[in-house]
Amino acid sequence: MNAYVSAVIADIEKSGDSAVFKYTKKFDGVDLSKDGYRVPLSEIDAAAKRVPKALQKAIKASYANVLAFHKYEYSQIKKSWKFKRNGVTAGQFYTPVEAAGLYIPGGRFPYPSTVIMTAVAAKAAGVKRIVMATPPKKMSGAVLFAAKLCGIKEVYRVGGIMAIAALACGTKTVKKVDMIAGPGNAYVNEAKRQLFGKVGIDSLAGPSEVAIIADKNAPAEYVAADLMAQVEHDPMAKAYLFCESREKIAKIKALLPKEALKQVKTELCSLKKAIEKSNKIAPEHLELIIKDYAKLLKNVRNAGAVFAGYQTPTACGDYWAGPSHVLPTNGSARFSSGLSVMTFLKKTSYIEMDKKNKKGYEETAEFADSEGMAYHKKSALIRGC
């Protein structure tokens, strides 16, 4: 797969739109060569109007919640700071990337939720140009309605390797972006991996996963529904259940379809041991379906998102609660975080020196001399003379 993805990327980098047309026809069975793949604003408007009112209302509510969360997140970030020591003023400041490309996967269903969960964070961060790409066969009215709600005017009907390569490399149709965010299949992930460095990449998302820690009083039907909500993503999705009650595990398993059991791993253990096991897994979603969750929460070290208490299903985080549902998978919560305003911000260091700081110039020159950098040494000493 790696070599094939590399070949497609190279072809698109060399031939641009003609290669995008070729591979889209090959992989998706869609010929884009006649009308191109940028979606006209009139089509976005028309498709958005066809979305049922109840769904429009739900998407608007999600947008409002997610926007409020990310605006608040942004307000909590100290945009710049400085301090002075030994004659040097140093600090940092944040600036947003100028252009972000959002990949909205096709998969088994269209995903308007992923539009909200990626675009709103970029918008709150102050990104000027937000671009969206999604496979042509999954471009539903709901996806376009969500794009319009988020203020996205640049939408492309292209998916897979072609979308990632076009966004990263640029073509006659698509101006290249600085950052690509959003989940995708194995081919999308490999394209993102190969193009990292040419463009910023949010993460390499794997199959969705949940770890549920349940106490002896957890409602069995809640736990079963939440496990199945994870399993229904795709056949590769993973679900773990750690419970302190053998009887409760039996009740939960009895509520699950037999075919789902191959994707669900259950284990009898104490709640304390369950947290230890969860930290080793570093799950994308961690549900604490326990009464006294606050006692365990302080011991959570590795998780993309935590859902606390009996009344908090992962599903509400997927669609409505506020934080982005684009989260680290495959154990990457050990070292990375979910998509947020910070995904689209760059941190720049600031240094200002005073000519009176002779000691600083001399010590810089000493370091440079030890590494054989003659002009580094000179550039410091001529300022300290």
General description of the model:
This protein has 385 residues and is α/β, with parallel strands linked by helices. The protein has helices at residues 2-15, 17-28, 41-49, 53-75, 112-125, 141-149, 160-169, 186-195, 220-231, 246-254, 271-281, 293-297, 314-319, 358-370, 374-384; strands spanning 80-85, 88-96, 99-103, 129-134, 154-157, 179-181, 200-201, 209-214, 238-243, 264-268, 285-289, 305-308, 345-353. The strands form three sheets. Strands 5-4-3-6-7 form a five-stranded parallel sheet, sandwiched between helices. α1 (2-15) crosses α7 (160-169) and α7 packs parallel to α8 (186-195). The N and C termini lie far apart (59 Å).
Task: Summarize the helices and strands and which ones pair or pack.
Blueprint: H1 2-15, H2 17-28, H3 41-49, H4 53-75, E1 80-85, E2 88-96, E3 99-103, H5 112-125, E4 129-134, H6 141-149, E5 154-157, H7 160-169, E6 179-181, H8 186-195, E7 200-201, E8 209-214, H9 220-231, E9 238-243, H10 246-254, E10 264-268, H11 271-281, E11 285-289, H12 293-297, E12 305-308, H13 314-319, E13 345-353, H14 358-370, H15 374-384
Parallel strand pairs: 3-4, 3-6, 4-5, 6-7, 8-9, 8-11, 9-10, 11-12
Antiparallel strand pairs: 1-2, 2-13
Helix pairs in contact: 1-2, 1-7, 1-8, 3-6, 4-5, 4-6, 5-6, 7-8, 9-10, 14-15
